[in-house]
Amino acid sequence: MQTVVLKVGMSCEGCVGAVKRVLNKMEGVESYDVNFKDQKVTVKGNVKPEAVLQTVTKTGKETSFWPEEGKEASK
């Protein structure tokens, strides 16, 4: 089980709907939460972070991985 958190530039409820539509169609997604106020999309399931990023980017919204607070980026 993987949790992917994205920052998505959503300007209206239509944007939220577009993001929900692509996530509903995506294979492996078990649940998701679209927070319009925080511009935050959390996806849980058997998914790869890159694939989720690519899928949400298809909506035309500015999409990036949520910056991890207080953690050094370690690979």
Task: Please explain how this structure is put together.
The chain is an alpha+beta fold. It is 29% helix and 31% strand. It has helices at 13-25, 49-57; strands at 2-8, 29-35, 40-45, 63-65. The protein is globular and about 30 Å long. The relative contact order is 0.30.
Fold blueprint:
Layout: E1 2-8, H1 13-25, E2 29-35, E3 40-45, H2 49-57, E4 63-65
Antiparallel strand pairs: 1-3, 1-4, 2-3
Number of strands: 4
* Sequence of strands across the biggest β-sheet: 2-3-1-4
Question: What is the string of helix and strand elements?
Answer: EHEEHE
Strand content: 25-35%
N-to-C CA distance: 19 Å
The global form is: globular
Number of discrete helical segments = 2
Helix content: 25-40%
Sheet bearing the most strands, described?
Answer: 4 strands, antiparallel
Q: What is Rg?
A: 12 Å
The unreliable regions are none
Could you tell me the mean pLDDT? Answer: 93
Structural class category? alpha+beta
